[in-house]
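USER: Write out one fold?

ASSISTANT:
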Amino acid sequence: MNFTDFNAMVESNAASLRSSWRNYSLSSSALIAVIVFGGEHLDGKRPMMVFAILGVNLLLLLSTDSQMAQFQALRKDMPSELADSATGQDWSKAPLGAFRVIGAVMTIAITVTMLMAL
């Protein structure tokens, strides 16, 4: 793969990851605000809140894991001029698999915490 195509793919994937996190931050903040300030207005709406909490967190889990998997695949297709550089060598050492596991564990912990608070 040539450097220009590789760089474009990395930038696109990074933008998707940032977008996922931005959307998640806004959505989860709104859900937390509803949980904290909803009070008695949540009566009868808890099933909808459970669905929203599970949906938002599952979407984050799936999209983030997919994007991290794409970074792992891109790392294998790194052009030789980048692979031979200090940046490329550092990227080759990055524990992307561990990042995927930590992301999944944290997302599950946040989901459980939000459901417990409901």
